[in-house]
Amino acid sequence: MTTCYINGKYYPIAEAKISITDRGFQFSDGIYEVITVYNKKFVDLDLHLYRLLESLKKINIKINLNRSQLERISKKIQKINNLKMGIIYIQITRGNQHPRDHKYKQIKPNIIIYSIKKDLNKFDQTALKGAKATLYPDIRWLRSDIKSISLLGNVFAANHAKNKKAHEAILYNEKKYITEGNSSSVWIIKNNVCKTHPLTYRILKGCTRAKLISLLIENKYKFKETIFSTKELLNADEVFITSATNFVMPITKIDEHTIGNGKPGSISLSLRKSFIKAI
Q: Measured between alpha carbons, how far is 221 from 154 in angstroms, rounded to an integer?
């Protein structure tokens, strides 16, 4: 049975309990982080823990654990659960507050960490064939730079993709510019130039995105952080998404539109290979 960490103690996940007065349950007042474990190795652990602490600062939640302690607990959960492939999930909410009130007090946060086994190797076959995506309006709140547990907009987008038998929903704003995927960063390649949305409040600072940028620079690829439209997306030579579990995933079809020649592009596949090699 999976073991989880809650507020300093370890429990079988079936026995884990949080009060219904938890502000995460009542208001989605909290943040989360997903850290991939690939062949027993943590992927971009430092980047994820840094982003988690930055999100906590942005919503004014103070915890009594530092980055090193969070790392130690995450690695202990991996070891206890014998996680070779999958994710470590961290969720931190503002804590329990009764009576219910939109205005928050300085209360003790609830800290939850557990693991989920996932076969990430299955994405290799998807990448070799190329994945399908679908377009969906970006209806999320305007602080997507905060990794909030309030994910209803993402849920709508992800289930739209599911109904379309697509791997991911690619989101566009009111001006028809692409922001990101329902759980990924979106990239296009045109004339050998890689492009992705610049860091603003409209997108999450993706850890896989950050790692890939360093690989692009290291391998001397042409690269721009710039906005691009749905039209540019559909007319790109290559399209791919990046995320903690997808790594680099080529997109070969968006709704009924074929990208390029309908096969994963050589740059996308090369970048996926370089990313996995760098883990």
A: 31
Predicted TM-score of the model (pTM): 0.96
Strands 247-254 and 257-258: antiparallel
Per-residue pLDDT of the chain (279 residues; tens, 9 = 90+): 899 999 999 999 999 999 999 999 999 999 999 999 999 999 999 999 999 999 999 999 999 999 999 999 999 999 999 999 999 999 999 999 999 999 999 999 999 999 999 999 999 999 999 999 999 999 999 999 999 999 999 999 999 999 999 999 999 999 999 999 999 999 999 999 999 999 999 999 999 999 999 999 999 999 999 999 999 999 999 999 999 999 999 999 999 999 999 999 999 999 999 999 999
- Measured CA to CA, the distance from residue 275 to residue 144 in angstroms comes to 25
Closest C-alpha to 51, from 210, 247, 216: 210
Catalytic residues: 147
Give the residue carrying structure tokens 């928050």.
104
In order of their start, the domains of the chain are 3-118 (3.30.470.10), 123-277 (3.20.10.10)
Cα(266)–Cα(193) distance, integer angstroms: 13
Query: Residue 121 is encoded by which pair of tokens?
Result: 């190797």
Number of H helices and number of E strands within the chain? 8, 15
